[in-house]
Amino acid sequence: MRIRITFSKQGPLRYTGHLDLHKLWERAARRAELPLAYSQGFHPQPKMSLAAALPLGFSSTCEVLDMRLERDVALDGLPDRLNETLPPGIRVTHIEQADERAPALQTQVVEAEYQVELREQVPPSELKRRIESALAAESILRERRGKKYDLRPLIHSIEAADDTIVMLLAAREGATGRPEEVLDVLGIAFEETKIERTRLVFNAPQV
Amino acid sequence: MLTQTQIENKLDRILLKVQKPGRYVGGELNSTVKDWDAVQTKVALVFPDVYDIGVSNVGLKILYDQVNQRDDALAERAYAPWLDMEALMREHGIPLYALESKRPLACFDLVGLTLPYETLYTNALNVLDLAGIPVRSADRDETHPIIIAGGHSTMNPEPMHAFIDAFVIGEGEEVIHDIINVIQRVKCQTSQVTSDLRPSTFDRDELLRLLAHIPGVYVPHFYEANYLEDGTLSHIEPTIADIPKIVTKRVVAKLPPPPTKFIVPNIDIVHNRVSVEIMRGCTRGCRFCHAGMITRPVRERPVDEVVEALEAAVKSSGFEEIALLSLSSSDYTNVLELVTKVGEKFGGTHLKVSLPSLRIESVSIDLMEKLRDKRSGGFTLAPEAATERMRRIINKYIPDEDIINTTREIYSRGWTTIKLYFMIGHPSETLEDVQAIADLCKRVIAEGRKVAGMRVKLNAGVSTFVPKSQTPFQWVSCDTPEQIRAKQALLRRELGRDRSIKLSLTDAEDSFLESWLSRGDRKMAEVVYTAWKNGSKFDAWNEGKKYDAWMEAFAEHGLDPLFYTHRQRRTDEVFPWEHITAAVRKNFLFQDFRQSLEGQIRVDCRLDCFACGILPTFAQIRRENPGDVWKCPDVKSPGKKAIPQGDNVNGAVTSDQLAVNSLPVVGG
Question: How much is the pLDDT for B92?
Fold first, then answer.
């Protein structure tokens, strides 16, 4: 059975990375007595995958994980059962059955939405001007880890209200927009913000 | 003092700049967060090394559990921040805080430090300093927490006497409650508001006096060390009446139920596992072994209790590994039954089970086979020495043939890697004895190849012997740095080229550092202080340790490191730890040392009691807990009625003294 778990990641868990999060879910499954399936071989690995790595320090309300189980389980009450045994920063919000033959979860993500809270105010008109200018650009050439790329096509939208910026960025394999890069373009110091992922958009049709 | 919210806000701004920020945020499953204002006594338990190492420490886990079981107390945790984090904390004015509530350590009533090894000493000072607490005990007053330390290295507490208010000698499970009770009594008497963060303060001197009366608690402030002209001690004496001349370690009569609520870190750490102590103490009597001498008597935990605890702990933690802890698993009476039950219970569940410290015999292989679905990982054995002469000296007698036969069998049953642990620097060891280590390793590989082909591998871990207090080798001289380097060079030359053998050696400087601290006196405290002031910390880590800073510190205080390391002690020498005892008597240790010089071995003391001193010291406790609970003989003689405390020069402990509510009242 393949199940799809939607969960939030908050507070101290913002500082738990992608690999450690895998481990966390493996242990959670053991605690909740979920029959997690393992790969064959000398070093059996649990069969699960996270939709998209969340950068360290970001919180999220919309993380998605696929888990393969050795046998069918009832989904009724499962979110509560898992939540009882999860650390306070992780909360399951939804669990559903997923199509066994559906492609790997991480290949299905297309966009991600981030909500950025500014700790230091930028005058609204100034912020608006900077956003408009970024969106008006043909291309925004950036360099990250020694690789040159164009950020502009990865930005699908940016909106601002009071001290919050909401941005929708591409999140395809090999074409992922990073919110901190966008913030840099907007002249906002990443350290002075709190970033939360609020939505993952998957390829339609999604099972 | 910063509030929790202020600390949390500051943290948010710096955490992404450090390696592994998950070390500094808490929020782990099974950590206990209590309502701060609802409990009377707040305890911060500190492992003064990095989180990754500290979080799995079983000793602190037990204490955390003990304190948090009380309704009137809470325990939180703190670890030493890594160098990058420390720099940022100092830059941003963030004091060391406890992970659960993010409150500064200075807000707690009691800060308990564990000092299992000597290379944590500079870190202990650093932790206090980073918490904004004066490092020296004499500089602290009623507004500061009481600083208490325990752990194996405090069997010689003297190098840390200037910094720690009270040491717990021996096992902490019961004494932690005595200490909390005393703190509560003193605080009730002098309850007043001094600051918004810490609602009450206490009479520090009164508290220290009361602590000094708890059996097993040593308050260095009330003892004076007097020296002879040659720099050794003449005597150590209490400076106030009614406290013991010799502080005897505490033991629990029976091992209390093990903790089963393991803190589950949200980041990768060194030991991600459920660990349950199956047995405490060891009857083997290896003369180099500090743990084996200071953790007597042997007390075993019943098989069913172990299995139940494992089940509960795996259920509540979800950990992927189980460790059955003891100093010598093979000596656990029902080891086969235990291993069979654990194998049945957890077989096929993707759990790894580790059973360390197995004897070198084929039965050990049977045990390991029951625990493992696959022969992955290595098989670890510890011969410690490679010549018959050396093995007799250290009292760990395993003939070469046993080692060869066992390792051959291990390879033939499918394990490809064997780890062998040795030590160099044993008393009177020569280069021939070291050569024998290399020869034995080569023979193990050659024999292994005969049964399992070229894929066999051997990891040879060779550490350097450090003489410890309270052991038969407390009199011996360490090898000089030159001798150690020569022995290590020999091993590298002999084993460095063989691709099947991986040799790992302990850094020679690390061992020297450990050596002068392990048998150091009160004068060493100034060296520790100066070395720390000059920037040495994380002395067990190459990134932190500054060997030159230590050397400069010795020079500054006119002390010679070789006085502490490369010096044969006089037979009648008064040791810096003479006023502390692990209840194994000095004359027993000396006898054992003499036997070592004569190459005489002593058998397992389960077979023959050698009267080490444990039984007379804890006769009453043993009398009340007869039979299999201890692996010592029963005490048959009727108990003496109430020994008056003043006459208690031998440090005998009666059960009355151990009762939690019967503490003597001084000055109040």
Answer: 96
Averaged pLDDT of chain B: 92
A95 and A118 co-located in one domain: no
Residues of chain B that touch chain A, judged by Cβ-Cβ distance less than 8 Å = 12-13, 15-16, 21-22, 24-29, 264, 266-268, 272, 314-320, 350, 374, 376
Q: Are A114 and A166 in contact (CB under 8 A)?
A: yes
pLDDT digits (tens, 9 = 90+) for A25-78: 999 999 999 999 999 887 889 999 999 999 999 999 999 999 999 999 999 999
Number of independent structural domains in chain A? 2
pLDDT of the residue at B666: 37
Q: How many angstroms away from the CA of B282 is the closest CA of chain A?
A: 34
A116, A85: one domain: no
Instruction: Give A137→chain B minimum CA distance, Å.
Output: 30
Domain B254-374 fold: Transcription Regulator spoIIAA (3.30.750)
CATH of the domain at A94: 3.30.70.580
Domain, as residue range, for A20: 2-107
Architecture label for domain B376-523+559-569: 2-Layer Sandwich (3.30)
> Would you place residue B640 in the very low, low, confident or very high pLDDT band (cuts 50, 70, 90)?
low
Measured distance CA(B62)–CA(B65) in Å, rounded = 5
d(CA B22, CA B543): 20
SS3 state at B423: strand
Top residue of A8, A18, A19, A23 to mutate, by most chain B CBs within 10 Å, is A23
What is the CATH number for A159? 3.30.70
Identify all chain B residues contacting A44, using CB atoms and an 8 Å cutoff.
350
3 state SS of B390? helix
Asked if residue A207 belongs to a domain, the reply is: no
Q: Does the beta-carbon distance from B268 to A12 stay under 8 Å? A: no
pLDDT for res B648: 42
Quote the pLDDT of residue B662: 36
A33: closest CA of chain B, how far (Å): 8
Q: What is the average pLDDT across B371-397?
A: 87
Query: What per-residue confidence (pLDDT) applies to B492?
Result: 97
Catalogue the long-range contacts made by B482-485 (C-beta closer than 8 Å, 24 or more residues apart).
B483/B425, B484/B424, B484/B425, B484/B508, B484/B511
Last residue of a domain, one of A79, A107, A135: A107
Residue A124, chain B, CB below 8 Å: the answer is: no
Contact B242, B287 (CB under 8 A): no
